[in-house]
Amino acid sequence: MTEIAAQLSEALADRYVIDRLIGEGGMATVYLARDVRHNRKVALKVRRPDLGAVVGIERFLSEIEVTANLQHPNLLPLFDSGEAGGLLFSVMPYIEGESLRARLDREKQLPVETSCTWPRQSRARSTTRTGRA
């Protein structure tokens, strides 16, 4: 377990049990975790600590508030969020299935229909979030 995962695991021990790393990106790391209270799998996303210092906790919490109030068929609901052990986190449902990276590694090229559908869905999410196209 990484230092950040151990820090987060300790800070959220009464709420979530971290199982394993799901993925990492430029802004955050996502772990598969178990919601202790509801006994369900969740995706626990933790912002990189250096980004939390740059972006600021207030902005993160403001963005989370907006996200928590969005309702759209293509958006996952936000279960929980906040700051724990100096780390900013958010929790969403865990959706089982193949990642885009795994699919690209397997297929090398996606069908045109699939490739065109995802940007439209992404644009719909963006429009819903910002109120503009």
Rg is 16 Å
The CATH class assignment of the largest domain is: Alpha Beta
Number of strands: 5
Give the H and E element order.
Answer: HEEEHHEEHH
Q: Architecture of the largest domain, CATH level 2?
A: 2-Layer Sandwich
Q: What is the CATH superfamily label of the largest domain? A: Phosphorylase Kinase, domain 1
In whole angstroms, how far apart are the ends?
41 Å
Work out the helicity level: 40-55%
Give a short account of the largest sheet: 5 strands, antiparallel
Percent of residues in β-strands: 25-35%
Structural domains: how many: 2
Low-confidence sequence ranges: 122-133
Integer average pLDDT: 81
> What is the topology, as strand order, of the major beta sheet?
1-2-3-5-4
Structural class: alpha+beta
Annotated CATH topology of the largest domain: Phosphorylase Kinase, domain 1
Q: What global shape is seen?
A: globular
Counting H and I runs of at least 4 residues, what is the number of helices? 5
What would you note in describing this structure?
The chain has two domains: 3-96, Phosphorylase Kinase, domain 1, CATH 3.30.200; 97-133, no CATH class. The protein has a five-stranded antiparallel β-sheet, sandwiched between helices. The protein has 133 residues and is α+β, with helices and mostly antiparallel strands. It has helices at residues 3-11, 49-55, 57-68, 100-107, 112-130; strands spanning 16-24, 28-35, 40-47, 80-84, 87-93. Strand 2 and strand 3 (40-47) form a beta hairpin. It contains five helices and five strands; from the N terminus they run αβββααββαα.
